[in-house]
Amino acid sequence: MQNSQDALLGGRYQILDSLGEGGMAHVYHARDLNLQREVAVKVLRHDLIEDPAFQARFLQEARAAANLLHPNIVTVYDFGHDASRYFMVMEYARGTDLKTLLRRRGRLTVAEAVDLGMQICAGVGYAHRAGLVHCDLKPQNVLVAPDGRAKITDFGIARALASIQPDETSEIVWGSPLYFSPEQAAGGPPSPASDVYAIGVMLFEMLTGRLPFESSDPKQLAELHLSAPAPSPRSLDPKVPPTLDQIILKVLSKEPSARYRTADQLGRVLTTFVAEPALASSAPFARVSVSPEPVYDAPTTAVEVPPPAGIDWTAVALGLLAFLAVGGLIPLWLAIYLIR
User: Fold this and answer.
1) CA nearest 213: which of 178, 255, 189, 254?
2) How many domains, in total, are found in the chain?
3) How far does Cα 7 stand from its chain's mean position?
């Protein structure tokens, strides 16, 4: 985009700076002049929007993505087109993407990886309940905020790209074949179990610092996803607990029916894993930190219940005297009444 500092998109969004460029879109930091708030704007590649079928699909999927309101999903505010540019407006989430974080750190601790995995499952599971499949989950599409919260992006765009011609699929739709499922590698339609597989690949990478399948040849990489057994994460890092190792190997099963069917199911399994007594007594499952600034949690206040009060015999005695005094006056009142 020429002169991005002065660009105005849709007569409303002032482009402030470029945030990056991917295979599908160019991302900008912008300001919504109507609501006076910072936003992120994704302007789709020009060659994609030339297809009328894609335009219709993009608008349909953008509407569906705009209905996803969850703390672990980047909120879609608006979408539209300006001249020949199609764009999507989202919340401006500060932090870094998970891929950049992994490049810096190499690998994460078990606690950090499982916590991020549960957050990703929470967001993707919410989308699955709404009838949406992401289709292109990868660390580049997971933003990690300074407080450790994970936010998933690109729901609408990935779904729309799944509608383009099959001969373009390997280059564009699954732009990162390192994370796609065997059924996607075979050219089949994605399902919630396909997203679960991608989450499994990300968990593998977070724990071991490498991917289960690697190749510079996309066709060979697809073949590995289709037929090669996934290595055990524990064989690469003995610090990975055996139970977690089994969970990830199940998620990386070739057959979708052998995996957990939805991200919600995987999330519940990870939650149960965290609650195991052997783990509860070890390191706490704290969120990953992407900022040197400390994160302050609100302290838990214990409310003390006061012990039962003892019997106040003085009060009891005074009460009895008062009762007797009043009771002794009753005969006098009756006598006066009858004399009348």
Assistant:
1) 178
2) 2
3) 32
Q: Are residues 63 and 26 in the same domain?
A: yes
Residue 151 CA, distance from chain mean position? 5
Q: What is the rounded average pLDDT of the residues 170-197?
A: 79
DSSP state of 65: H
One-letter amino acid identity for 216? S
Strands 96-97 and 85-91: unpaired
**55, 76, 78, 79: which is closest to 67 by C-alpha?**
76
Q: Where a domain ends, among 92, 121, 139?
A: 92
Say whether pLDDT at 164 is over 50.
no
CB atoms within 10 A of CB 266: 29
76 shares its domain with 179: no
> How many other C-beta atoms are found inside a 10 Å radius of the C-beta of residue 18?
13
The whole model's pTM is what? 0.76
Does 136 participate in catalysis according to the annotation?
A: yes
From residue 5, give the alpha-carbon distance in Å to each of 11, 16, 31, 91, 279.
14, 5, 11, 19, 51
153-157, 216-220, 284-288, 294-298: range with lowest mean pLDDT: 294-298
What one-character DSSP code corresponds to residue 5? Answer: G
Whether residue 332 is contained in a domain is answered as: no
Write the pLDDT tens digit of every residue in 59-99.
777 787 888 999 999 999 998 888 778 888 999 988 999 99
Catalytic residue among 115, 136, 154, 264: 136
Domain contains 303: no
